[in-house]
């Protein structure tokens, strides 16, 4: 998990929001010693560290409250998703049991 956190820091240091951190986007190398964060298909580059993203995107089980509420967000939203991922790794279930984003 530390490798994923370092990967996220590397991305955030370059002002990139991943916006879809989830277990399906974590990959192991063949020898299972290295974890990689993948699928940057909906990633967004911010022009400044103070800029906020506004497009609601990602996987609902991992989306931060501000995205679910259609509010502007920054890299802290990826940190929220990483927390959801950690919960899933420890418990083998998603942290929230909801039918849709309204729940």
UniProtKB/TrEMBL annotation:
InterPro entries in UniProt: Kinase-like_dom_sf, NEK_Ser/Thr_kinase_NIMA, Prot_kinase_dom, Ser/Thr_kinase_AS
Keyword field contains Kinase: yes
Q: Which GO terms describe its molecular function?
A: ATP binding; protein serine/threonine kinase activity
Q: Which domain of life is it from?
A: Eukaryota
One Pfam family assigned to this protein is Pkinase
Which controlled-vocabulary keywords does the entry list?
ATP-binding, Kinase, Nucleotide-binding, Serine/threonine-protein kinase, Transferase
Q: What class of enzyme is it?
A: transferase
The keyword Transmembrane appears for this protein: no
Enzyme nomenclature, EC number: 2.7.11.1
Q: What is catalysed by this protein? A: L-threonyl-[protein] + ATP = O-phospho-L-threonyl-[protein] + ADP + H(+); L-seryl-[protein] + ATP = O-phospho-L-seryl-[protein] + ADP + H(+)
All residue ranges annotated as the Protein kinase domain in the record: 1-103
Would you tell me the protein name for this molecule? non-specific serine/threonine protein kinase
Species per Swiss-Prot/TrEMBL record: Haptolina brevifila
